Amino acid sequence: xxxxxFLASSSGSTAIKKKQQDVVGFLEALKVDYAQLDIACNEENxxxxxxxxxxxxxxxNGIPLPPQIFNEExxxxxxxxxxxxxxxxxxxxxxxxxxPPGSKEAVQADKADIVENGTHAEETNAEGNLDDxxxxxxxxxxxxxxxxxxxxxxxxxEDEGEGGEEEEGEVAEGExxxxxxxxxxxxxxxxxxxxEEAVEETDEVTEDxxxxxxxxxxxxxxxxxxxxxxxxxxxxxxxxxLEEEEEAExxxxxxxxxxxxxxxxxx
Length: 267
Known about the structure:
By secondary structure, the protein is of the alpha+beta class. 67% of the residues lie in helices and 7% in strands. It has a four-stranded mixed β-sheet, sandwiched between helices. The longest helix has 103 residues, at 164-266.
């Protein structure tokens, strides 16, 4: 499988040149075999690229700008999709290539397989079955886990029945504890009001931040649209110049042929 990168060697656009350099430089850093195909000097390369870029991936004017990336005959994407794949460590998937062992993309793929298949190492034993080596106490399996606690509680109740005076002292202490609990509840009623005010302030700050972020995002989208329009205009201008040059060459050849014909007739 050969990765094909369609470039414009004589492009006058600085943005296009930078994007082409980014793609080529990153592929070389990954040591990925690729072939550069120039669309500025080779009309066949230009026509092939335009015909094989899917219609839904073409811009509004129908003219895809370089760089465009293919894996043999399969379309991979343009610079924007390549950049997104690079940010997500999914370049090999973007190119349709298997990630090399030990790479970030290979590690991510292994983790995804583990999560998808549910084969966590800590949950399975040597035979690949769920680990059931943890034994459940006999008391819990038979429903008698709290039998000792219940016996101890019954003994305490008998002791309390014999000491009536101690119960009176405990009642007095209980009344004091109830008074303290009432004071804590009263203080607790004031706390939610303060928390609600803090939540309202936080919501206001969040709304302001979100509005600012939306404005920045809209501005970035507008800048991207303007840049894309500029690139498309430059590409159209280049194509127009090439067509004019070709027409001029054809006209010169016709004039030369005409002159040669006239000279032969004169002789």
